[in-house]
Design a protein that fits this description.
This protein folds into two domains: 82 residues, Translation factors (Elongation Factor Tu (Ef-tu), domain 3); 111 residues, Translation factors (Elongation Factor Tu (Ef-tu), domain 3). 3% of the residues lie in helices and 51% in strands. It contains one helix and 17 strands. Strands 1, 2, 4, 5, 6, 8 and 9 form a seven-stranded antiparallel beta sheet that branches. The chain has a six-stranded antiparallel β-barrel with strand order 10-15-13-12-16-17. Strands 3-7 form a two-stranded antiparallel ribbon. The longest helix has 6 residues. The chain is elongated.
Length: 211
């Protein structure tokens, strides 16, 4: 479940996390983990509410509020994902299939080169990154396969739909994640060698539970 909001309960160590369940189900009392942006916590799901009604479990497609016991409030941020232990995947490199909007779709008039800086929106998070592709130039209206590289890990999975923007108002294109790769250390874009960095990528096994 991507986290859309959080509420601190006064005079308590508990907090409420709000979002829409994307897959599976969650029952009261189950252990859950929260991952994303180099933060990680394990907590227990307490009371669950759907439209101000207390329920024993929540299923995919339902918007809910989950009471989390002993949550470190400052360690949770909008966009992080909540799920069963070991199931939330994070990385800083993904492969995408992208369609670039044309001018008639309020897209760009000119193409972009590999290494272009974009703002990526996925579920409830948005982060800056760079996009790399084999073509020298990607023109409006074209479809391509490329790589998104982030400086820090983000919660994401195969099939995630993304929107690329050059600003919060201007959409560059839409895409879908087709592959995840093992996270690579990257602390700055200075002297970044894209060819060498992307040469030996190892696919991330989504079926392998994380510790």
């Amino acid at each position: 479940m991507p986290i859309a909001n959080k509420i601190k309960i006064p005079n308590s160590k508990d907090s409420v996390l709000i979002g829409t369940v994307e897959r599976g189900q969650l029952k009261k009392g189950e252990h859950i983990e929260i991952r994303g942006f180099e933060h990680f916590q394990k907590v227990t799901a307490g009371e669950i509410q759907v439209f101000k009604k207390t329920v024993n479990q929540v299923r995919a497609g339902e918007q809910c509020g989950i009471l989390c016991r002993n949550l470190i409030f400052d360690g949770v941020h909008k966009g992080m994902w909540l799920g069963a232990p070991g199931t939330v995947q994070t990385t800083n490199i993904v492969k995408i299939k992208l369609y670039m909007l044309n001018e008639n779709e309020n897209g760009r008039k000119q193409g972009i080169r590999s290494g272009h800086t974009v703002l990526t929106f996925c579920t409830t998070w948005d982060k800056g990154c760079r996009i790399f592709f084999d073509n020298e130039l990607l023109m409006p209206g074209e479809v391509t396969t490329g790589y998104l590289v982030f400086l820090r890990e983000v919660p994401i999975r195969k099939g995630s739909k993304i929107t690329l923007r050059e600003s919060r108002r201007r959409v560059l294109g839409h895409g879908v994640v087709v592959e995840l790769y093992e996270q690579q250390f990257l602390d700055t874009w200075n002297r970044f060698d894209a060819e060498g960095f992307l040469k030996d990528l190892k696919p991330l096994d989504e079926n392998k539970k994380r510790k």
